[in-house]
# Entry
Amino acid sequence: MTKKLISIIAVAALSVSAFAAHHGGKKALEIEFPPPFLIGTPVQVNLPHLEAPGTPRPTIMVPEGTTNLADGKEVTSSDDFPIIGGLDYITDGDKESEEGYFVELAPGTQWIQLDLESTSTIYGVAIWHFHTQKRAYHDVIVQISDDDSFESGVTTVFNNDHDNSSGFGKGTDKAYLETNEGKLVDAKASKGRYVRIYGAGNTSNEMNHFVEVEVFGTQ
Amino acid sequence: MNNPSDSTTSVGRRQFLKTSALASGGILLAPSIMKAQSSPNGKINLAILGYGKQGEVLTTSMLEIENPPFHIVAVCDIWKNSIGKCRSALRKVSPELKWYFDCEELIAAKDELDLDAVIIATPDFWHARHTNACLKAGLHVYCEKMMAKTPDEARSMVHTAKETGQLLQIGHQRRSNPRYLHAYYNLTKRAELMGRFTTANGQWNRSAKPFREVNPRIAVEQDVLEKNGFENMEQFLNWRWFRDLSGGPISDLGSHQIDIFNWFFDALPKSVMASGGHDYYPDRQWYDNVMAIYEYDTPNGPARAFYQTLATTGAGGGYYEYFMGDQGALRMSENPAFTKMYREASAPSWDDWASKGFIRKEEAAEAKVQTKVDVRESAPPDAYEIPIVLDKKPHTPHLENFFAAIKDSNVKLNSDGEHTFKSEMAIFRVNEAVAARKTLEFTKEDFEV
# Structure
């Protein structure tokens, strides 16, 4: 276990650094991934808008100084008292998906919200819901705002609620299978202090889970 | 083999299904006399004691029961993480679920909870203490197998059940599986398709895998671990591999299938020899690979059975119990894909039984081209399928049998404490035989309660 912890710490430390060849004063954002560890019994995933497994991540060009602004930041949620895990798990740098690494939120449409503590320019949002079983989470919606109530000035940077079942408008983004690589969303240099992520259960059960969220940007 | 047209054995498809249902505890036949339950809604108020992997399996099995005759009112586990998982699983059906971290606290609250029964899925070395305490508190008990860590502990559970008059079902769920019931009552006993059983073999192999770990931040407090018999979190998470806590893989997996040997042979073994070792995991306390050979005196003559559990490979053709008789063979498994019957070429035709729906003939495979044939080779047997497929989780019928027995005194448990104790004695002595490196004879006293 000690060896494993050191490994996790190393991964977390690396994950906040963006490194790649320079390109027009910017460089491509890269993310460190936890090791793959599939143990759960696969459940058939039948979604009309599921993207093909192996679809490449978007290449997001970021300026020097881009860091994971979410690291250690406070997380709030529509479910104030998660039964399994804690909201602090989401920004603790541990991206493994086994017991003790994920928080489970109540069924139905739920959200988590990260407070970056000041208005930031956000280039990318990386999300790991749960990756010990192949599954897809429903109605993943990523929004950015300076309003902590998300009633005004909201920018939606990702929405795969294809049938508007969560009521925030029909999204055109694809559903995706969870893997150890998570999901990298291009935030297109949107500005805001808060990042809110919605979900509405998954293809295996009604629950909402989050292992980790990283928000790459500058302040 | 019996003739299906004999008046005493002539049963149509509807009749044999009914027979299976009766054998399984009358689950499919609505009981006419229902015991009054203490809860106002007439449901059995139920607690889950131990919500590890097996507690989770049993709970999800219970959740698929339509119009459940029970209501889960409480869960007890020493690990907060397990309590959370149970609360999560039961959010909808038991929003008022109570939880406890100590079995004594659960039992102390039995009147407040209006508790009728408890499902025990704690580690083996706790089974006897938990079961005896719950039975003495007036609760019916469904306890996971193995019954206990030692034969004497298992005996104490049988004694307590008798003294208290409470029900004690042990989690050998194959005993309630309709395919197994059909194979035993209809194919083996009624139709006698396999003739005289002479041998059996069985196995359950699992791939090598490291010890389970969790994030240390959710670990059980050290003082709680020690109070409950665990040295540390590693023991708690992997208790099946520790000698003070369990009987190892032969106890975990072999217990299911050796019990089926005893059931289908209608006998208890007279001897066991076994070999096992720390072949792959030198640091683990229990044997990772175990092979055992039993000798039986069945009502139809001598028989012997071989069983292996290998914790180092998932190969070997799945998990099954394979019975061979002089007229046919029967390979049983919880997985229908591993289930098959074979008729010896010299045996009477099975066509009538197939036409009545007892069995289904498999389409003949195209003969394989073989350039050299051993002229002494027996003709290949015809293959048949057993047309009974369980459309529920494997544990569900056994739990239904338990609930039916609570509700209706006419319903018998399919794996009651006393019969299970005798069957499990065959398993208790395997590790002893491995250590002794010689054949051990069972005595009459071994099986006495």
In short: Residues 178-391+420-447 of chain B form a domain with the Dihydrodipicolinate Reductase; domain 2 fold (CATH 3.30.360.10). The first strand of chain B starts at residue 44 and ends at 49. Chain B touches chain A through 13 residues (CB under 8 Å). Confidence is low (pLDDT under 50) at residues 5-37 of chain B.
